[in-house]
Design brief:
By secondary structure, this protein is an all-alpha fold. It has 19 helices and no strands. The longest helix is centred in the N-terminal third of the chain and has 32 residues, at 50-81.
Length: 415
């Protein structure tokens, strides 16, 4: 019986829509984290002095996240109105072409425009993919499906590091764009979610983002879904991305390589995605598994910033541990897809992760403001504690979705 069950699970997880969604997120994450890896060499090659690299790097990162914020809204609404597949095709085309364009930039201005466009395209990939997977797979396998998609995404970040190690930063962008265009060919054979096909036949409002704000209960559920993911992007967007600057402030014996820090962090996140997904299945609870990883991540943040570590190798180990503790990204996206009915599911599952990514903007703004008043270590510490405490509070009030039925719609006047 157990062998038959395992075989059935494997058959479901290797269906074409699931595999294509997973590969799509791999290409998505390749582009998203390639900039963090090649920030310093790419800006240096454009002629920026050392003191401007962090400042302009922050600006480019924020523009990318602003593009993702706007794109998340546009692609999310389109996913509910036009279908999950329309987003999977449109988003990958835009970010693939923007990726190729990034390889040709000769100025920071052009770089900034293309990072915004790439962010806009990237915004649609994950939410549409997770929505499609969640609606295709049986309830007992949704956690495994989301784990597969997210784990392949993390593999994309690792691929970005390997490519950037062997190739120039411009070639790295060309490779990312080429992978995206190749994936478009695979998607021609992907079929639409059966739940969405049934939904189209009903006279139900789809993709009406205003419904999220007309009900206090619905809005708070949506807001809590965003806040629980915020610490992930504090870790990636601040601690890991600017690890060279933290290393200098901590007096580490050798300069920290940002590319290596990203590689170690996402190596850890591969394991974190797998373990958090399995833990969720074991505990029969999304909330309990996320709580474990949130508390672990907060503890490791304190170690990274406050422990008297001077050895660069130990810092890389801590980066890997921070990545592992951020592995609840899988569960966070799954919860986002499970929280709402099928007429709002793509809107929510696409906008929530992109709002979370966009929290890098206020977090880095607060970080920069505090850095002008105190040192870089205590600035990050204050921002981190703020992000973790908010996430723990939001998790406390969040609905448990582990066994929730996905075949339902949100009523116009609900809540």
């Amino acid at each position: 019986m157990q062998t038959a069950s395992s075989s059935s699970t494997l058959q479901h997880l290797t269906r074409l829509p699931v595999l294509v969604a997973a590969l799509g997120y791999m290409v998505d994450m390749y582009d998203l984290f390639l900039f963090s890896i090649i920030r310093v060499p790419s800006l240096a090659s454009l002629g920026l002095p050392q003191e401007k690299i962090m400042e302009d790097g922050l600006m480019l990162l924020n523009l990318q996240m602003a593009g993702m914020l706007i794109g998340g809204i546009v692609w999310g609404i389109m996913g509910d109105k036009k279908g999950r597949l329309s987003v999977l095709f449109g988003s990958i085309l835009i970010y693939s072409l923007a990726n190729i364009g990034n390889g040709f930039v000769t100025s920071v201005g052009a770089y900034a425009i293309l990072r915004f466009i790439a962010g806009f395209g990237l915004a649609g990939e994950l939410g549409a993919g997770i929505t499609l997977v969640s609606e295709i797979l049986p309830a007992r396998m949704r956690g495994y499906g989301a784990t597969l998609v997210a784990t392949m995404g993390v593999m994309g970040a690792l691929l970005a590091y390997l490519v950037s190690y062997f190739f120039d930063w411009r070639i790295s962008y060309f490779i990312g764009g080429g992978l995206g265009l190749l994936l478009m060919v695979l998607r021609i054979r992907v079929f639409e979610s059966g739940i969405y096909v049934q939904l189209k036949e009903q006279k139900v409002k789809r993709g009406n983002i205003g419904m999220l704000f007309k009900s206090r209960e619905r809005f708070l559920k949506y807001l809590n879904g965003i806040i629980i993911g915020m610490p992930i992007w504090f870790v990636i967007g601040i601690l890991i991305t600017f690890s060279p600057e933290f290393g200098a402030a901590l007096g580490v014996d050798q300069p920290i390589n940002a590319g290596k820090a990203v590689m170690f962090a996402f190596s850890g996140q591969v394991a974190g995605n797998l373990i958090s997904g399995m833990l969720s299945q074991r505990l029969q609870s999304r909330k309990k598994a996320i709580l474990v990883f949130l508390l672990l991540s907060m503890s490791l943040m304190l170690v990274f910033l406050l422990a008297p570590v001077k050895d660069v190798s130990t810092i890389y180990v801590i980066c890997a541990a921070l990545g592992f503790s951020s592995g609840y990204w899988t569960l966070f996206i799954t919860v986002a897809a499970e929280l709402f009915g099928s007429n709002l599911r793509a809107t929510v599952a696409t906008t929530i992760p992109n709002f979370v990514r966009a929290t890098v903007i206020p977090l880095t703004a607060l970080f920069a403001l505090l850095k002008g008043r105190t040192d870089i270590i205590h600035s990050a510490l204050i921002v981190g504690i703020f992000a973790y405490l908010l996430a723990l509070l939001a998790l406390f009030y969040l609905e448990e979705t582990f066994k929730k039925d996905m075949n339902y719609t949100e009523e116009e006047k609900a809540g």
